[in-house]
Amino acid sequence: MPRSDTPRLPAGGVTRSSLLLNAGWSRHQLDRAVGAGLLTRPKKGRLARRDADPALVYAATHGVIISCVSQAKRRGLWVPHHDRSHAAVRVPGRTDAGSTVLHWRAPLLQREPHSLEDPIENALDLVAHCLPFEDAVAVWDSAANRGIITRQRMARLPLRGSARAVLAALDPFADSGLETYVRLRTQWLRVRCVSQAWIAGHRVDFLFGDRLVLQIDGGTHVGPQRTRDNEHDAQLRLLGYTVIRVGYFQVIDDWPAVQHLLVEAIAQGLHRAAAH
């Protein structure tokens, strides 16, 4: 019989009461913990600590599984801005999840019966069918870049439709969603483009042709980082490279202007090595 008056719940602080009963706790002990405010009952058959993860409590309360964009974000992946949470429905039926986007798609991997979070493979499959193509590829790129998935592993799963198209565009070397967008949006230029190319002791985001460098500034390009970037830009120019540096909002909100810069630079031959 457990010695403490309060059961220890798993990470996240939400579990099924049946698991605690199987572990040796009595219904009386659990009722007493709830009555004392040490535990709560978000839904019949579920128990939670007072400091439990709100997302898990929400999933337990509404009988859903955290998935799609929400699960990708919880796993630390790059995701586009989303105001609404996303969840999967385990069993078809009446489910009231408020403003949450609900997904009814059959999972690639079977879900553990007591889990409130989808395996990342299931979440990515939903991402591919939920988000616009570029956004979905950016999330998958992030997962591959962090080693959470591999192209080979995902290719062995029964992917269909949009998910197969996203897999075909996957690039594990993309360091951010911004790089994914640029890669997809410049493929039509028919100029060799290398992402994360190593030049003059540092990586550059994109190298077009032999001499045209595109750098994308994210939120970390301030202070010492900005100084290092400026120093590297100077080294690149001394070596004969043309450097175009743009920011997050230019890529997201003003892509035509960025594209025009690249097209103009290529038209001027700035991507070619100087003739000797």
List the helices and strands and how they pair.
Layout: E1 14-16, H1 17-22, H2 27-35, E2 39-40, E3 46-49, H3 54-62, E4 64-66, H4 68-74, E5 86-89, E6 101-103, H5 120-130, H6 133-145, H7 151-155, H8 162-168, H9 177-185, E7 193-199, E8 202-208, E9 212-217, H10 223-238, E10 242-247, H11 248-253, H12 255-267
Oligomer description:
single chain
Portion in beta strands: 15-25%
Number of domains: 3
Share of helical residues: 40-55%
Q: Tell me the number of strands.
A: 10
Structural class by sheet pairing and helices: alpha+beta
Mean pLDDT: 89
- Span between termini: 84 Å
Rough outline: elongated
Unreliable stretches: none
Number of alpha- plus pi-helical segments: 12
CA-atom Rg in angstroms: 24 Å
- Report strand order across the widest sheet: 7-8-9-10
The major β-sheet equals: 4 strands, mixed
Order of helices and strands: EHHEEHEHEEHHHHHEEEHEHH
3D structure, described in words:
The chain has about 280 residues and is α+β, with helices and mostly antiparallel strands. It folds into three domains: about 15-50, no CATH class; about 60-170, no CATH class; about 175-265, Endonuclease, Chain A. Helix content is about 40%, strand content about 15%. It has twelve helices and ten strands. The strands form three sheets. A four-stranded mixed β-sheet has the order 7-8-9-10, with helices on both faces. The chain is elongated and about 85 Å long. The mean pLDDT is about 90.
